[in-house]
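Section 5.1 Outputs to date
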Amino acid sequence: MTVTWEELGWERIAAGVGRCRLPGWDCTVGLVIGDDAALMVDAGSGPAEGARLRSEARALAGRAVTHLALSHPHFDHVFGAAAFADAEVFGAAGVERVLAEEREALRGDAVENGLHARVADEAVAALTLPRHLVSDEWTLPLGDDRQALLVNVGPGHTAHDLAVLVPGSPAVVFCGDLVEESGAPQAGPDAVPALWPAALDRLLSLGGEDALYVPGHGAVVDAGFVRAQRDALATRFGVS
């Protein structure tokens, strides 16, 4: 029996493209379905959440998730990655070092922000590292009907920000936490403020004026919102 996006609590954005806003930290994950493959964008905040997303994605796509793109190395986006161990995992070049060498810092940040220590321990122990590292752009075929473009657009929110462009009418851009709608963009110690506005310029050049932009947190926005946030960040950080 075919299920709809809405029945599983997902939002359909375009044909074969949807996203889910997760409880807790209002983190967004995305799903792109092609004839031959299914791409998940981010993985949630823990093994159980990742397993639930894997199950829902299979129900929506009619197949297992074949590819996982990690937008940046923060716990609410990567701690569910172990549930997708059979998928081809992608990240911005350098993110693998963060996930391999800074696990205690990731765990500490997760617990400080309210993740149960046991869940954080499980996630860190099982954390899946990306095998495919994107230094510039990577075209990912998903079948005769669809492809996705993975783009290393950072640094900005972190030193290793990966965006996903899904061409179409409309085009859809998964932005990670370079863009946030439900609150002001969070700039932690791993942010690169001087380059963040330029990363948003890159997003806008990828998607164009008519694209739908999917923030890491909050509602889907348009190019005007991204441009306004870019200008606000430039003012906030004193850069052009």
